[in-house]
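Predict structure. Chain length: 669.
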Amino acid sequence: MSNKEVKAALKSARDAIRNKEYKEALKHCKAVLKQEKNNYNAWVFIGLAAAELEQPDQAKGAYKKAIELEPNQLLAWQGLANLYEKPNQIDVKGDLADVYEKLLELYESGDKQKWCDVCNKLVELYHQERKYLEVAETWQKLIRMKQEEGAEKAELHQLWKKMIQLLKDSTRNQDNKTGQLLLTAFEHALKSADTVPGEDHQNLYMDFIQCLSKFPHEVARLEKACHDMMSLYPTMSYPLEVLCLHFVHSGTLSEKALHCISRLLEMDASSGPGIICFGIKCLKEKKYKEAVESLTEGLQKTNQCPAAWHYLAEAQMKIHEHRNAVLSCNQALEALGTAEGPNLQWKNLALQLKAESLIKIADADAAEEAIKALEQIVDGSSDPVVSALRGQAYLNKGLMDQASKISQELLLSHPDLAEAHALEGFIHYSQKNYGQAEKSFLNAIEKKAGTAEYHQYLGLTYWFMSDETKTDKGKALTQFLKAAKLDSYLGSAFCYLGNYYRDIAGDKSRARGCYKKAFELDETDEESGTAAVNLSVELGDMDTALTILNEVTGKARPGTAKWAWLHRGLYYLRTGQPSQAVADLQAALRADPKDSNCWESLGEAYLNRGSYSTALKSFRKASELNPGLVYSIYRAAALEQILGKYENAIATYQEILKKTENYVPALKG
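Prediction complete.
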């Protein structure tokens, strides 16, 4: 076949392809290759025809052969790109990206429009594969090309915005280079915006600031962006809110931070971040109840702020709301997710605070949960304070050997650690080794004098050690007073002071004041509530007693606060108000249906009201629960007599007399 015949065969192949006669085209190409096995065009035409005949492997082989022959010719690369772009081609995205890269190289000095088209395709491909760095670098090449061509500012602005859109999901798995390219895109988009200030520019600025807030190392850039936006949009609270949340997360409230907080709250008193920051300020100023209120309110508006949840838990711990503190720590941990970088520090703090709260709850289940929380603290095993907490959790769970082992190890490795001596004290106290406990708590106080709990436990040690230390004003009383002074929210310290003034000093009025304070601090403290009511009655101050009882019963859920319902029911019974007594005693029984004395009192209330049948049932129930309640059995017999059930009444009287021969009311009955 002559050169002329080769050209004619290639022309025939081209015409056959144009007429969609692909098999015919292949025949012509094969004829050419017999003569010229390295004919570039013949291999390209085979690739094209084979692709149309759904023979992708043959097509791919033909294009690659052509590329091998002429690596810088366009046709084969274009054909290979078209082949890989077909929907039936799978697992070729990596190869297609390489083809696009080569096409960009070939188009660069020629057809700019085609270069841009391929560039767009390559970026789309990288975006599907979530190769964000490649997306950013390729899109920047496109922008550079447009700049060289003298593109208008508006077109470049749209291209920078498109780059932001392409990279917006990259912050979830951010490498530093991609992050920097994204931030650069934001800065260029902001500079190239047409209308400044304007709505689009404002929204873009907000997105830029939100993006910056996800980069812990870009603090200076974030602060500058917020201040620049405030200059342009002085009525916008958003940059101030972001700054405030940044200060919260940094863990410091500087003068600059306090200025931002006050400025934000002046602008918008209902701002979630502003209220959160105010709550943290209250916490730092030891206004714990105000801190809890503000942080709770702020988190209802801005709940995805793990540091704020931690601060709320801290404030709740200060006022001894331990169960609420555990819930807040859980919220912090949920918001943090799988933490890394600065968030890891917050996660460790939240886990430690959760464990401390659970240890204060002081039951075995809470102790088990505390141990699990402590195990999750990164590098917690090397932290002696974490080890001391683990020892306390073991102690609460009843695992004395493990607690003692930790205590001994800590005292050897960290003899100056207050928590190590305190743990030893808790162990001795639980074993009633009061002499040893005294030494341990004195050592703990020497190392850390400002801890109320250590003074309280030293006071309790003196209380149970001997009558001498119990009554010595310089021992138990002094320690309880110090504990109450150091922690004015520690209800149990005021309860112990009440015990001292009532049982040792005989000062009912002062004792009542202490119990009342203890109960105000902890409404679940039945001992203090009951003592405050009883002492008020003894002091002839029924108004105070009723105020306490009314407050408790007014808030009580069904089946709770038995002591308050019972006390008020007995008061109504004594003061001739049987209907009110019945209602309260029934409420008390809902909390504890097996209290025989309560059933007896209810029977008395029904009797006073004239409800004889129900009174009879109540007295019978009381005697069933406690056969030793002779009065209830007698009352049942008397009611049977009133109701005309004489035989039953006689039998019941005889039953009483078998047990108690000289029980006069029964003989009389």
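Summary: The longest helix spans residues 342-361.
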